[in-house]
Amino acid sequence: MDNRYVALLSVYGALLIGPVVWIIHKLLFVLDSINRYFVRRHQEAWPFKTTPHVRETLVAPPPSDIASWHLVTEEGRQRWEYRGKGSGKAPEHTFVDKYHLGIAPQAQVKPARSPSEALDSGAAFLMKLQHPTSGHWPNDYSGPMFLLPGAIFVKFIIARGDASKMFKFPQQRTEFIRYLRNMQNPDGGWGMHTESHSTMFGSVLNFVSLRLLGVDANDSAAKAGSRWILERGGALSIPSWGKVWLCVLGLYEYDGINSIPPELSILPDWLPFSQGMYWCHARIVTTPFSWFYGKRWKADSHPLLEAIKTEIYVQPYAKISWAKHRSDVFAPDIYTPHSWVYTVANKILLAYEKVHSKKLREIALKRALEHIRYDDESTDYICLGPVNKVLDMLITWLVDGEDSAAFKRHVERLEDYFYIGYDGMRMSGYNGSQLWDTSFAVQAAVACGVEQQFEREMAKAYHYVDVAQVREDPPAAHAFYRARTKGAWNFSTRAQSWQVSDCTAEGLRVALLLRNKLSVLRHTDTMDDSRLFDGVDEILTLRWAAGDGGWGSYEAPRGPRYLELLNCSEIYKDIMVDYTYSECTSSCVHTLCLFRKQFPQYRIEEVNRAIDEGSRCVVSKQGPDGSFYGSWAVCFTYGAWIVTDALHMAGFDETSPVFKKACAFLLGKQRADGGWGEDFNSCVRQVWVENPDGSQVVNTAWAVMALMAAGGATHRQEVERGIRFIMSRQLANGDWPQERISGVFNGNAAIHYPGYKNSMPVWALGKYAEWQKKHGA
């Protein structure tokens, strides 16, 4: 055929198809807007109350056992090791060990006599929480109740059902059981997270975990868990993630789940729904799920698994019509209902499943495995997060064998996710929050002006920030949809390697704040200007310059918003694509402003543009009532603080309408005792929900800092009442008690930031001291 004729056909084809594609594209945006409206109404009407994160410890640890655990750190990597009888001479506990184990001396509430005394006491205690060798602030980062079950399931499969061989330390099994007992709700179920009502997702996964850990079916906790599940119709209505996990265990059938074809990994990149368009967590978790689905792999039969089938299903397992339950989800679990677009898409995929090419399936499985291996290797087997970590570990065991170097490294790195407390051992939502908590602790100290007083501690913190910076880009990044990482800081450790926009901003800010203030760094500073420039380059690269000018979490948004129509998780919101967030954008704007002061010549036009457009992006996210929704913490107080602090740095003052509205919103929420108290359901429902436990120290610290940044001296009385409330909750040793949970992701998953109860009130007290000097006592 003549080449000119082919070219002509291509032009005519494009002219014919182009308008059709454009119409479909626009139609999907309209459908997405309609769907978001109805989903938002569903979420705003969320009827379920939260439960306190801090609970009575029903099963306390034997004193000798809990005291045998020690935190081992290496440049931020943290693992709890058991050093009891027969394990050699145990090292002396550090104060950090004792504090996190819950065996440090307990203090009572004893308010300081003045804000300066509260500041001194709080700052001194905050410094005691720094790890003495690593220099970071270690913390528990748990909360979600669906993470630990995945690790237990995989360990059970690999140990071939022998509970005594499942974990590195036999005592881990004891501590996992203790944690699951302590987190069981009074009605016998378990929640999606530690403040959640009982859900089918949490109850089935954690009940099965108890049984796989060796707890007898007649045990009181097991009987209560099974009863809760059966009285509500059984495990058939577990959400989609739970269905996949049960399939892998052989406790559910693949005919009963919606299609997750591995062919998603070989879709052309130009398609708006190709794999690279999705948020990193969505694509990284979907890939191993699709591998198992494509293989229809499940664990070998085991007597215990056969027994569990009778304990989680009302009807005999062999008589279940699985296909009828693909979209069957227990109503109290549904946070984000399926869209009808997803329902239609799923029918198409199920039809494809009946006729798919075996050869194409093998190609897709091979490509999916390449993506899985890439995340393993580029993170030194830490992986992006705990869900894909354990899935990837099981796949590595299946493909490479238990004697392979890759599998052995997976096993070693799994320990990075386990964290122990007085109520037992749990699984963290990352391999820790090392960089994040360290950056906030340092900034709190700087706000107090005590960096010289605690120069040794600040130098150690600076060293950690130094070693935590990522120095190179991932290899073959484009082929695996990875963004630039050189110059980035991530949430935890350098080895984890996944860049995060606000973590990069906070890490760089610490470097900028400390490098010229510590005399000890004059001859030992290894972070030269080029490293700081790398950090700025990373921040500028991650900005959505082609969109609203703001910053997403891990990457600039890629796919169209209407991909959220394909959200099949049921339990999360805003999970399919990355979005620009007021908090991430504010962190980046704040740090760029500080950088511009110190380096006014470096990429100045781009830095100025990023600050201006980023500020406009943040302002555009303010609600009509003056609020800023917090997507990563609870909730409107957090949003108000981090936004006003950044905009103040960018030149906004108390005359700004944005600030006036923000202050009015906060003032309307201050309680009679001077504090502020938000419930986790503020995140869930996306409207202010008062905390049933009353004012919270962390919420109050955020609100007070926001009022000082946005209101100048205008709201003196309200600020001082907030400061007095913070002082009223302080303990005699400078600590503050743990209250309600203060972190969140994707709207419906609570996550624990225990470090906030120390860094945030100290930060607020430091800001208050500075504010008093500026505006007069």
TrEMBL record:
<dbReference type="GO" id="GO:0006694">
    <property type="term" value="P:steroid biosynthetic process"/>
</dbReference>
<dbReference type="Pfam" id="PF13243">
    <property type="entry name" value="SQHop_cyclase_C"/>
</dbReference>
<keyword id="KW-0443">Lipid metabolism</keyword>
<dbReference type="InterPro" id="IPR008930">
    <property type="entry name" value="Terpenoid_cyclase/PrenylTrfase"/>
</dbReference>
<protein>
    <recommendedName>
        <fullName>Terpene cyclase/mutase family member</fullName>
        <ecNumber>5.4.99.-</ecNumber>
    </recommendedName>
</protein>
<dbReference type="InterPro" id="IPR032697">
    <property type="entry name" value="SQ_cyclase_N"/>
</dbReference>
<feature type="transmembrane region" description="Helical">
    <location>
        <begin position="6"/>
        <end position="31"/>
    </location>
</feature>
<feature type="domain" description="Squalene cyclase N-terminal">
    <location>
        <begin position="124"/>
        <end position="380"/>
    </location>
</feature>
<keyword id="KW-0413">Isomerase</keyword>
<comment type="similarity">
    <text>Belongs to the terpene cyclase/mutase family.</text>
</comment>
<dbReference type="GO" id="GO:0000250">
    <property type="term" value="F:lanosterol synthase activity"/>
</dbReference>
<dbReference type="GO" id="GO:0016104">
    <property type="term" value="P:triterpenoid biosynthetic process"/>
</dbReference>
<keyword id="KW-0677">Repeat</keyword>
<keyword id="KW-0472">Membrane</keyword>
<dbReference type="InterPro" id="IPR018333">
    <property type="entry name" value="Squalene_cyclase"/>
</dbReference>
<dbReference type="Pfam" id="PF13249">
    <property type="entry name" value="SQHop_cyclase_N"/>
</dbReference>
<feature type="domain" description="Squalene cyclase C-terminal">
    <location>
        <begin position="433"/>
        <end position="769"/>
    </location>
</feature>
<dbReference type="GO" id="GO:0005811">
    <property type="term" value="C:lipid droplet"/>
</dbReference>
<keyword id="KW-1133">Transmembrane helix</keyword>
<dbReference type="InterPro" id="IPR032696">
    <property type="entry name" value="SQ_cyclase_C"/>
</dbReference>
<keyword id="KW-0444">Lipid biosynthesis</keyword>
<keyword id="KW-0812">Transmembrane</keyword>
<keyword id="KW-0752">Steroid biosynthesis</keyword>
